[in-house]
Amino acid sequence: MNVQDILKQMTLEEKAAFCSGHDFWHTKAIGRLGVPSVMMCDGPHGLRKQEGEGDHLGINKSIETVCYPTAAALASSFDRDVMKQLGEALGQECQAENVAMLLGPGLNIKRSPLCGRNFEYFSEDPYLAGEMGAAYVQALQSKGIAACAKHFACNDQETLRMSGSSNLDERTLREIYLPAFETVVKKGKTRSLMCAYNAINGTFCSENKMLLSGILRDEWHSDAFVVTDWGAIKDQAKGVAAGLDLEMPGGPNATGEEIVEAVQNGTLDEADLDKVVLRLLQFVKDSVEQRRPDAKIDREACRKLARKLAGECAVLMR
Question: Which of 191, 183, 207, 221 is closest to 272 using CA atoms?
Fold first, then answer.
């Protein structure tokens, strides 16, 4: 699978449509060019895979799996090896379940006890969050499973999460909100990031060029692809221009018409679209090449590991 050759053979309409998912959990396939669909699933504290009809909130039935301690507990271990063991176990489980990417770790900084997702974020300390996240990402990806660090960035509340703006100066952004992501990008080499619902200083993360191109690509030199949080897209053409790669969830109506129109009227350079498509094709290629179809999962061993890790999270400081 040569991604450059495939890109050259894709029509504008195919490239635009490829920037949205097939359904709730899968990328689009391009049958005539031999590009398969791959699956991503919720994490990072246990695989949440829905084999039937998918949904965002987990209302529909998921497969039986093992629930591990949450990030709030794991960070209390102050132990990179705890994250390594968890990442390897989840990577093995993803291989056994034919999942290409696990959505995690959650790296946002705890700034308020009212945040509805504090349990799945590591810490109020950027260094601790970055080190624990990088160890997890390295371990997960050592098993051939892509990590997806989230929610990029400045997502520290659930209230009005789809419309709110996190307003802050550059020093606060650089010293508090970005360091954990930078560590996971540079040290962990995460293959993906998920952009947050919220805006930063009035510009939504899904179309924030400063965040997705200026910082992630130009400053951190990352080739990780960026997926939206589920339903976070505001304007897909503006997103592609800013450095956004994949809209999730997708569906039969997600044809990328906005992207096609923007290229045709000159408001979006097709070269920017090609960069997006190449990153997505590379993700699919890597996932196919790192697939381990003979992988097995030992649920009882996973349960024992979950209990062991929970014990490591109980730390008395003096």
Answer: 207
What integer pLDDT is reported at residue 101 of this predicted model? 98
């700034």: which residue's tokens?
Answer: 111
Quote the CA–CA distance of 216 and 233 in Å, as a whole number: 19
Place of tokens 């996240």: 133
Give me the DSSP letters along 236-262. Answer: HHHHHHHT--BBSS--TT---HHHHHH
CA dist 21 and 227 (Å) reads: 10
Q: Give the pLDDT score at 217.
A: 97
229 classed as catalytic: yes
How far apart are alpha carbons 52 and 33 in whole angstroms?
Answer: 27
Q: How far apart are CA 24 and CA 45, in angstroms?
A: 20
Q: Quick one: 257 exposed, middle or buried, by C-beta within 10 A (0-12, 13-18, 19+)?
A: middle
Fill in the amino acid letter for 109: I
Q: Could you tell me the pLDDT band of residue 54, with boundaries at 50, 70 and 90?
A: low
Domains and CATH numbers, the chain: 3-311 (3.20.20.300)
CB contact set of 264 (below 8 Å; sequence gap of 6+): none
Catalytic residue among 79, 229, 245, 286: 229
Query: 186 in helix, strand or coil?
Result: helix
At residue 282, φ and ψ (nearest 5 deg) are -65, -40
Over residues 184-195, the mean pLDDT reads: 98
